[in-house]
User: Fold this.
Amino acid sequence: MYPAGELVDETISTLVPLLAEGDIIVEGGNSYYKDDIRRARMLKTKGIHYIDAGVSGGIWGLKVGYCTMIGGDEADFKYIEPLLKTLAPTDGYLYCGTTGAGHFVKMIHNGIEYGMMEAYGEGFELLKASPYGENLKFDKVAHLWNQGSVVRSWLLELLESAFEKDPELSEIKGYVDDSGEGRWTVQQAVELGVSAPVIALSLFKRFQSRQDDLFSDKVLSALRKEFGGHAVVKKDE
Assistant:
């Protein structure tokens, strides 16, 4: 379980001389599914088997188990199934298909996660900006919505916990990183010709969170001044 990319390839290269024919490598990180296909083909020439396992559960998986999505040869899946069953909660693992399928399903899972997080963020932003925002306890709202509402989720549980610790999130900077899965999901949507505007926008919002005083916003402000004589805010104001 390493960060996706070169480090995984380097680790596999280190392992190969130590392995025997028939051994199985399980890639439990968040690799791009096309990399899985390439690696599996390379390892097959050496008689080594490869399984891609997309794992979800975060730091809480240690307590409640890891939801796992598996791709590769079905016989290899059955061989390691006792391990998966031990690590996962009840019904918490699934054989998704041939090589790459596990990480593909995990990639889409993370794309959905991007969209859900963005929706929660925008919702609470609206609550905070509203005439009622000063009196609302956001941890109480998050808790309420988890009591049978249609937007209940584990993410809301985590958000409730975050608001309990820091009601205004004043200790956190609004800088949101991404580790690749959202980008790959949007890229896949383009390749397949599938409309995924929510996931795409949530990815672009993460990009925006890392920039101050966006040039694109300056362009908008300049245009409003030019065509309508609207006031602009100067840098020193």
Notes: The chain is about 55% helix and 10% strand. Residues 139 and 163 are 5 Å apart (CA to CA). The chain has a mean pLDDT of 92. The first helix runs from residue 6 to 15.
